[in-house]
Amino acid sequence: MAISIIVGSISLATVFLFGCVGEIITEKSGHLNLGIPGIMCSGTAGGCFGVATYMNTYNANPSWFVLVLFSVICSIVFAAIVGGIYAILTVSLRCNQNITGLAITTFGTGFTQFFIDNYVDKNYFDKASRLISQGISVSKLGWFGEIFLSYGILVYFAIALAVIVSIFLKKTRVGLHLRSIGENPATADAVGINVGLYKYVAILVGSGIAGLGGFFYIIDYIGGSWENASTIEALGWLSIALVIFTLWKPDLAILGSIIFACFYIIAFKITGVSFTVMAELKLLPYIVTIVVLILTSIFGGKSVQPPASLGLNYFREER
Amino acid sequence: MNKENVVHEPLFHIVKANILPWWKKLLIYSISILIALTLTSIFCALSSDKGKSPFEMFGSMFIGIFGTEKKIWLFLRDTCLLLGVSLAIVPAFKMKFWNLGANGQILMGGLACYVCLMNFQSLPNIVLWLIMFVSSIVMAMVWAMIPAIFKAFFKTNESLFTLMMNYLAAGIVSVCITIWAPGGSGSLSPINKGVLPVIGKSYFYLLVIIVVAILTFIMYFYLKDSKHGYELAVVGESENTAKYIGVNVKKVVIRTLALSGAICGLIGLLLVGSINHTISTDTANNMGFTAIMTAWLAKFNPIIMIGSCALITFVSRGMGQVRQDFGFYNNALANIVLGIIYFFIIGCEFFISYKLVFTKKNNKGQKNKEEKI
Q: Between A180 and which of A3, A23, A110, A188 could a Cys-Cys bridge form, CB atoms 3.0 to 4.6 Å apart?
């Protein structure tokens, strides 16, 4: 059972990891995107649309590579479009970020529910899911193979992405510019960095990445069965909380999301307990989040603080 | 001309606008809502396979709201409930405390009410109502004060804290359901004995309407004329100013959230004790989030909030009828329409607070004076 919990955690962690890394990139540009749950939903809509379109055309002999590529691109595009609405409203029109984010979440969940229920053909989802989530054959390697090699490509992609984003933010010039915008956009502007452009790109890229989280959940984690958008919404909120949990560090997010996912699935993996205990175990991830929130706020030093201008819109002529 | 001397000026730049007269603001809001509704009606007509025209959406919405006497009362009831939650959120928001946890606070208030209904059936009704009233309010108050205390003393991020408290409250309700409804049926049967009194016909919901109407006026004067209202507004504007004039910021934060929670508890009491007579994890009907939008749209003015709540309820209830008439088989459409309306209303604020100043083609190489558009 331990192995099954670890494997399940790593798999579910991918959902959180995509959402968390996406939100970190966005927050580094000084934008608190509370629309991530809605954006993850719309990424799901896009990915499922991609899968349905491809599978309906090539259902006899689908190619693994093309299916993954096409659905991932669709997912990113859909999520980025909804993220684009957020960007237009908060960057160009300088609207309140919290309010805009909540509106995006309302729209995103509604859109996804409506779109997938009405326009996406779910006939080949389980076939596509088997294809996308197939890992390397693990029978010879025992527990090692099961823990490290049994996942679909998107799990490895998420981990690689977290590492790349971490290096990008810490070691590259563009990453430095992005961080400086999150800390103090006026200074960054004075140095000659195009603040608006950076913010737009950060929000679009962040949204695209976050969208993959929702898509992964449907097509890989639960095996291609569509329930409703509110499950993904809940996962989205947890991803935002995870950003604080992991102190705005994508590399730490890999570990953080696995721990988080472990708390989340323990209620589903433990057998032989009553409904009440199961319902109680489902409270765990939320309690842990609250405890971590409190602990980081009490003991957090300067290094674990959010970007200084997070949540504030930048208007050049404001003094 | 030497190429290096050419300066590329941007086509326009943005400046802060002066404060607009109220009718101009109203005009901008009305136009944006109208555009949003037109867009959604076209969207609905296109996605329906019943061959409906966009105009029929408005007809359906009106029938959905004003079709029968009962529908009008239901519309009033839902508007009042939403207004009540908005009233709960407003003081916290004015203080710049992002209370996203109204859903959870309502649920906890409702849960307390349900527990009283279950356990104190033997008491006379008046005593039972009193106990229900007190326990609902205290329960929700405590639930709201937990994040407030941590915010006041440790600056813990309140928006995520309250958000997690929502899920925690929903989780606690489902734990209780597994205890009280064994066998995994997942829902509790309504308790009809000892519930709050019905005034008039049962679908009138006069009690809800009266309570919220009184609450609206109290909140209006509380925010506008009371010392508490002034203090929380100062804390929201600038904590340092508040400290300078001798306001105890921690006390104000905790007190305001206690008030916010108490009103949510009252709504929970009305939902369980007067309307549903039972509780589920969906009892709050996501009003906590919707109320954030309505409070924001009304710029935290309780009187204007009546209008914004009526608008949002009109759309969300009206879309129920549209869904029937247009043959959509799920209710997600209401969220899309609300989302689009939110986008337009949020976006149009830009045209109230800022204005675009176009750069004129200049012949002399000098900047022209800014011109109003």
A: A188
Are B339 and A107 within 8 A, CB to CB?
yes
Name beta bridge partners: B354.
B16
> So where are chain B's domains?
1-34+330-373, 70-308
Of B177, B330, B346, which has the smallest distance from its Cβ to A99's Cβ? B346
For residue A105, give the amino acid letter.
Answer: T
Distance from CA of A68 to the nearest CA of B (A): 28
Report the distance separating Cα A101 and Cα A240, nearest Å. 12
Q: Are B166 and A306 in contact (CB under 8 A)?
A: no
Average pLDDT over residues B271-300: 89
- Please tell me the distance from the alpha carbon of residue A132 to that of residue B277, in angstroms, as a whole number: 47
pLDDT at B142: 95
B160 contacts on A by Cβ (under 8 Å): 240-241, 244, 289, 293
Q: Are strands B12-16 and B354-358 parallel, antiparallel or unpaired?
A: antiparallel
* Whole-number Å distance between alpha carbons of B294 and A311: 20
Q: What's the whole-number mean pLDDT along residues A213-237?
A: 89
Please give the CATH topology (third level) of the domain spanning A2-304: ABC transporter involved in vitamin B12 uptake, BtuC (1.10.3470)
Q: What is the pLDDT of residues B197-237, one digit of tens each?
A: 877 777 778 889 999 999 999 999 999 999 999 999 999 98
Alpha-carbon dihedral sign for residues B248, B250, B255, B257:
positive
pLDDT of residue B6: 65
Average pLDDT, chain B: 87
Q: Kindly report the number of other CB atoms within 10 A of residue B12's CB atom.
A: 12
- Taking the C-alpha atoms of residue B147 and residue B169, their distance in angstroms, rounded to an integer, is 13
Main-chain dihedrals φ then ψ at residue B144, nearest 5 degrees: -80, -25
A286 vs B171, B329, B337: nearest CB: B171
Please state, in angstroms and rounded to a whole number, the distance separating the CA atoms of residues A44 and B276. 34
CB-based contact A290 B161, cutoff 8 Å: yes
Interior CA angle at B362 toward B360 and B363, to 5°?
Answer: 155
- The per-residue pLDDT for range B53-108, each reduced to its tens digit, is 888 888 888 998 998 888 999 999 999 999 999 999 999 999 989 899 999 999 99
Instruction: Select the residue from B28, B143, B154, B180 to test the A interface by mutation, using most A Cβ atoms within 10 A.
Output: B154
Alpha-carbon radius of gyration of chain B:
24
Closest residue in A to B179 (Cα–Cα): A276
Q: At what angle do helices A284-299 and A250-269 cross, to 10 degrees?
A: 150
Helix (H, G, I), strand (E, B) or coil at B356: strand
Q: ipTM score here?
A: 0.90
